[in-house]
Records
---
Amino acid sequence: MPNSFSEPNRTAFVELRRYAEGLPDDQLTQSIDDEWSVSALLAHVAFWDRRTVVCVDGMLRDSGYLPLRTEVDVINPAMLPQWRRLEPNSSLEELIEAGELFLRTVDSLDEETAQRIQSSGVVNVRRWKHYQEHLEQIRHHFA
Amino acid sequence: MANSFDERNKQSLEDLRSFLGRLSDDQLQQPIEDGWTVSAALCHVAFWDRRAAQYVSRMLRDENFRSSGENVHIVNDALLHQWRRIPARQAVAEVLEAGEEANGLIAGIDEETAQRWLALQMFALDRSEHRVEHLEELKSTFA
């Protein structure tokens, strides 16, 4: 395994992917609370994977580059209306494409580089907690 | 007038609405450049309006609200994949709804408060500049 982040990321992503792929459209469009649907959550997970990839690419191109700490609490509510407008199959496809791209990106890092990026404190290549958090949330909803 | 941005914000949204009313589905899906489509550009405008709306609503609750700022290019690059997936008519609805939300919130701010927030350089209360920039870009696509 290229680095210590690869396997836990892949394991958690595959679990989320398999679960999401098993949901029919009417479950994907179900609301989880007053604001979020299952489909919107998948798009949200995909976005944070995409953002991580863009940041990692930037840091690999320029070792002195450090992205700003992100505005999680502003971006999520600002994007939620758009995440809710995605067709459920599009959210699922985006989850898979973004996740696979993220896994390939992290797999390309040696341990030292992966640790350097993680220790920057502004880019999180330890995505498995995010996958697990939302998988549990969705499972709980359908339990 | 509530503040010096109000009229420009309203006019720019009406100009955008009027232009979009003349575009067909095919035109909305037309590529612009570098992976962008007309529809994706609308989602982009909508997102930055929603972000401004988030800032305004948070600062109305707590004027000491501060955020780290955002890497504009990182967010745009990461979101483009999702913006391309949002159905064209949903993109139109979103840019108009987001514009109404931002305009409505900004219109409620008095001039003194607006100028104080402007000095913080955290977000743009004048939403017209961004809308006009992209409206001109779209107009030139179909010129």
---
Amino acid sequence: MNSIKGDSSTVQTIINTLQQVLMIEESIDQHQDLIGLGLDSMASVELVLELETAFDIAFQDDELLLENFSTVERIVSMVESKLN
Amino acid sequence: MIANKDINIDHLVKRFLDRFQEHDNLSQFPHINLNDIVAEKLHTINLSEHYGGRNFGLEETCNLLIDIASGCSSTGLVLAMHYYSLGGLNNILTESQKTEVFKDIQVNGEFIASISDPNILFARTKDDVKQVTDIKIDKTEGGYIVNGIKKSVSGSPRIKYLPIYGFQEGVRSRYGITALLTTVNEKGISIDNSWSYSGMKSTMSNNIYFKDVFIPESRIIGREGFGIEDTQELIYWFRLALTAVYQGIALCAYNYIRGLAKVKKEKLSNHQLAFFPGVQRNIADMKIKLETSYSQIMRCAQLVDQSIINGAFTDELYKLTLITKQYVSEAANQVVWLAMQVEGMQSLNQGKLLEKLFRDVRAATFHPPNEDLLKEVLAKKELGIISVKKRWL
């Protein structure tokens, strides 16, 4: 987790959210393929909704592509661009 | 006849074919066909030996359903609902539930309906789910109170068990859907006998109403609030069992027209239709469609059987079931259409086999998800679009 760029509390919240949505307890690496961890279409909907609630942000329609949520690094980048 | 672990039901298919005209003309439910199925102990075929079955997986069940539907579409559809519910619930129900329900089905020749459509393909929030779900469930002491409607229940005159999905307020889960196993005998359940469709006439797919129906908590399927998550197998069984029925209808049309082409003569030349190139072309096209759609059903069913063993279902397999449903639905409609081209105007004569199959096969694309929804879901999954907000830009 320490290798992930970004604000540590943001990163931690994202990882916690992912663990909750994917129903896993194992740590998640920055570049790990989340689709391989079970981020399917159903889980991705829940992930987007949880992230919007957790950070009080709103993703745009054209951002809602699975590939934008396929690694922790990509999610951190998207979330931080909205928080900033 | 398609091989099925030494089971040959040619005699049943013939009987079903002999009866279709009366059942269809009078909109009669084919009780007699289901009695035959029970008499030959085929009604628990996809359960374990303990319940009188032969452990048929989805592949073998599809083969059986293709045969049954090639004799009677409506019997095929009612049994598809029955088999898919048995197969899908087999790994979900508790041992005590199975002992009670499966034994009753085995010993008393009872049938089980399809589970209600949760209708949540594009629901984004729990409020959406609540709005689109036709059945509402409230927790009460010792069980649940059910209100709402379960639409188009195939086999309503004959089924006893009625699995349902319903929205339950206040549970902590993604969808808030709880699954329950009800029976048509519960106090507060009524059937409206409103089925009046030209296709699949004999299925008597009436609406069933629930008014303050009490269901004991021993009849919950899976966990409270996790009805969707805990019953994933059902959707795979449903899609494939359904496609098998329409494959059977297409097979029936093909068998009929292949036989007719050898005996019916063209008036001017006095030669059998079989010797005309246009007819030969249609026969070839029908056979190609039948074989390719059959291969698609079998490949998909084998993968689902394997996934059930592994306990894991992927997005790829989900998409494959959608593709299979769409492909077989289109192919079956085309096969019946081509058969009608060969027979000519007589195929539209009421009471003729192809006229009935024409009405029945048309229903294929309307089963959930209907063709439009199916393609939308498939395309969005292929493109990786997360359907959180608007369905369309």
